[in-house]
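Purpose: get a first structural picture of the assembly so the mutagenesis plan has something to point at.
Setup: three entries, given in the order below. No constraints added.
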Amino acid sequence: MAYWLMKSEPDAFSIDDLERVGIEPWDGIRNYQVRNMIRDEMKPGDRAFFYHSNTKVPGIVGIMDIVSEARPDPTAFDPDAKYYDPKSDPDKPRWLLVDVKYVRHTQRVIPLPELKADPALEEMPLVRRGNRLSIMPVTEDQWEHILSLEDPD
DNA sequence: GCCAACGTTGGC
DNA sequence: GCCAACGTTGGC
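Result (structure tokens, whole complex):
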């Protein structure tokens, strides 16, 4: 079982939205490195942090389960979709998604500056300069460490 | 295959 | 809203 961190802008899709719907196709991935990771390494049963990006307080806000294999992202075929890609052919899909399932909110938002300041997390791509991956792997040690930050005492 | 221009991400 | 970083596009 592997661990991940997945970013979403809460204005587009938030942890509260995920709680409401339960299971959601994580669509809109348009980066080859991320696509290859979900295709080759992500498996049902893996667990992920939900991260709010591009918002007033960016940070980790919840936990979810990966509940599907990677499968074609139908929004790539939809001319009206925000992430429509005319080069993605339904017979040979270029973009993939996985389904994610709500587990719970974290006990508090764990803000990015706190993650950045933590020596135990300095290897995380999230806190490294210039990183732009919307999905990234988290080691088991990092996962456990972040969980230990939930309770500020 | 090079690389300038352009678009996107995302913190601040 | 600004802008650094970086991926993609397309002319050559």
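Helices of chain A lie at 15-21, 32-40, 112-117, 140-149.
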